[in-house]
Amino acid sequence: MVSLDNPETLPVSLDDIKCAHQRIKNAIIRTPTLYSRTLSDLIGAGVWLKFENFQFTAAYKERGALNKLLSLDKVARERGVIAASAGNHAQGLAYHGNRLDIPVTIVMPVHTPTVKVEQTRGHGAKIVLYGEQFDESLAHALELAEKDQLTFVHPFNDPAIIAGQGTVALEMLEDAPAIDTLVVPVGGGGLISGCSVVAKNSDRPLDVIGAEAELYPSMYNYIKGKDLPCGGDTLAEGIAVQTPGILTRRFVEALVDDILLVSETNIEHALSLIVQIEKTIVEGAGAAGLGALLSHPERFQGRQVGIIFSGGNIDTRLLANVMLRDLARSGRLARLRVRMKDQAGQLYKVARVFHDQQANIVEISYQRIFTTLPAKGLCADIECETRDQTHLTHLINALREAGYGVTLIEPA
Question: Where does the ACT domain lie (predicted)?
Answer without folding.
Answer: 335-412
